[in-house]
Amino acid sequence: MSVTEADVRAALARVVDPSGGADVVSSGMLGAVSISGGEVRVVLEVDPAKGRAMEPVARAAEAAIAALPGVTRASAMLTAHSDSPSAPPPNLRGTGHGHAHGHSHGPAGGPGEPLRQAAKPQSGPIEGVDRILAIGSGKGGVGKSTVSANLAVALAAEGRRVGLLDADVYGPSQPRMLGISGRPSSPDGQTILPLRNHGVTLMSIGLLTPEDKATIWRGPMLMGALQQMLRQVAWGRLDVLIVDLPPGTGDVQLTLSQKAEVTGAVVVSTPQDIALLDAKKALDMFEKTGTKVVGMIENMSTFVCPCCGEETQIFGHGGAKAEAERIGAPFLGEIPLDIDVRLSGDAGVPVVAAKPQSPQALRFREIARKLIGAGYA
Ligand SMILES: Nc1ncnc2c1ncn2[C@@H]1O[C@H](COP(=O)(O)OP(=O)(O)OP(=O)(O)O)[C@@H](O)[C@H]1O
Predict the structure, then answer these.
(1) Distance between CA atoms of 17 and 323, rounded to whole angstroms?
(2) Is residue 138 part of an annotated ligand binding site?
(3) 26: nearest Cα among 40, 41, 42, 15
(4) Atom 25 (ligand 1): residue with closest C-alpha?
(5) Whose alpha carbon is nearest atom 23 of ligand 1?
(6) Largest CB tally within 10 Å, which of 122, 189, 248, 369?
(7) What's the sign of the alpha-carbon dihedral 44, 46, 48, 51?
(8) Residues framing ligand 1 (Cβ under 6 A)
(9) pLDDT beyond 70 at 373
(10) pLDDT of 104-147, one tens digit each?
């Protein structure tokens, strides 16, 4: 007998959060429930301040699900969510004001209608997109977006047709990094025309929300927005679509693995122990969602003094490589902590485009070639 969502909910209604006294279901903590054969995955949305304290509740939830007949594997992931009331769902309204410092893609139309749900498949391959490469990190600020942008530009420079989907709902930074502003247009009200710069086709949640406004997303809204960005964007023919994920583990990662066929994931970490501990969680999460980790990148690896050339290992060195070896994933390379990487990213021209012959740009090109050579990009 196969397990149903109702069975899972009933089991979780008996798991009590000792800190709040309520059970997982009535407290509103239960987010996405995914059932595939005997495998059950659930997301628990928790107050970020309580994060670690909720681990035992997640384990108890797993045990309760695992005890159900027909369940072969159970996993509960914690995701940080605000308790604030939900913001309205994104209104993917095309205004045709997209602007790239390079050039934008698609005709600029007048104000469009709110986007209608297109009658397209909601899972499986995305038309015209050969591969999807997810870029994740266990914690924020390790340079995942910087790496995604430079990798995208490097892959384009190697002759690949590249798309970049900025799914970092908590801090979309790709429009700034790729020098793209304004809103994408949707002349037919069904399909969004993405913008393009430095040879990369971009769609970002940041192009749909004001840059200076914090966005609070609840699970279902998030999933709807991700779904639209995957399937209602006119990506054209792509060799690879890079997805810049939010830091950590949670709904977006789970939704992506359910709604699209992800070819592989790359995990970015700094060499600090704490970042590596978090990177391990990201690796574990990809494993749980059945996504193959195709490589690790160590960012902010060493600092080369621009004055004297002396190399300093500010955050230590080599931890990501050791972790990659431990899990049997390829180590793709190290990116130094470098002022040009930051300045060019902030200026909307990733270092691979701004200084193509610099050692940092060449590192990204080398990583791009490794991914192409292995068939992942
Ligand atoms: N190798 C590097 N050298 C110098 N600065 C870097 C490097 N990598 C990233 N940075 C800088 O560190 C900051 C954080 O980088 P970024 O936004 O790419 O991180 P992230 O992991 O995507 O963070 P978020 O949590 O916001 O998603 C940015 O100011 C970026 O310019």
Answers:
(1) 33
(2) yes
(3) 15
(4) 140
(5) 141
(6) 248
(7) negative
(8) 137, 140-146, 168, 171, 173, 247, 299-300, 335, 337-338, 341-342, 345-346
(9) yes
(10) 443 333 333 345 554 555 677 888 999 999 999 988 889 999 99
Task: Assign domain 5-80 to a CATH class.
Answer: alpha beta
In the block, residue with structure tokens 């122990």: 273
Q: Is 145 annotated for ligand binding?
A: yes
Q: Matching CATH topology for 5-80 and 99-373?
A: no
What residue spans define the domains of the chain? Answer: 5-80, 99-373
374 CA distance to ligand 1 middle (Å): 26
Class of domain 99-373: alpha beta
pLDDT in tens, 261-274: 999 999 999 887 76
Are residues 196 and 102 in contact, defined by beta-carbon separation less than 8 angstroms? yes
Q: What is the pLDDT of residues 315-333, one digit of tens each?
A: 777 788 888 888 888 999 9
Q: Please report where in the chains the tokens 């899990």 appear, as a residue.
A: 327
Residue 143 in marked binding region: yes
What does the DSSP assignment read for 172-215?
--HHHHTTEES--B-TTSSSBBPEEETTEEEEEGGGTS-TTS--
SS3 content of the chain, % helix, strand, coil (to 5): 30, 25, 45
Instruction: Tell how far the Cα of 342 is from the centroid of ligand 1, in angstroms.
Output: 7
For residues 286 and 189, give the distance between their C-alpha atoms in angstroms, rounded to a whole number. Answer: 34
Q: Which residue has the higher pLDDT, 308 or 261?
A: 261
| Ligand 1 geometric centre to CA of 145 (Å) | 6
Would the annotation count 139 as a binding residue? yes
Burial 91-124 (b: 16+ CB within 10 A, else e): ebbbebebbbebebbbebbeebeebeeeeeeeee
